[in-house]
Automatic annotation (TrEMBL):
The protein's name in its UniProt record: Prephenate dehydrogenase
Top-level lineage group: Bacteria
Length: 103
């Protein structure tokens, strides 16, 4: 498959998102105990996610499931990759912004 390297890179980035989500969810737990977490979801459907959660790991899981189900059809793959990369980018950017603001 010609997209093997792309898929492997996406897996690496998803692993990075998973590790960051563990740290971020821990910080969110601390903030919730202190009474500071007052939201129901991190992302909206406009950002492409179907998951509704106030923690990051369910969004990482959604992406992991999508990556497992990535089409191999050359016609469908580019659109699926574009959607996946957009969502992964939003997730990584949000995780990074959260990390910087919660220092």
């Amino acid at each position: 498959m010609p997209h093997t390297r792309v898929i492997e890179q996406l897996k690496d980035n998803l692993q990075t998102a998973y590790r960051k989500s563990i740290d971020a969810d821990g910080k969110l737990d601390e903030l919730k105990k202190a009474g500071h977490v007052k939201f129901n979801t991190i992302f909206t459907q406009e950002e492409g996610f179907s998951t509704n959660s106030n923690r990051f790991r369910p969004y990482v899981q959604e992406l992991a499931d999508e990556l497992d189900k990535m089409p191999t059809d050359a016609e469908k793959l580019p659109a699926a990759l574009e959607k996946f990369v957009r969502k992964l980018g939003v997730l990584l950017q949000t995780l990074q912004a959260f990390k910087e603001q919660s220092k």
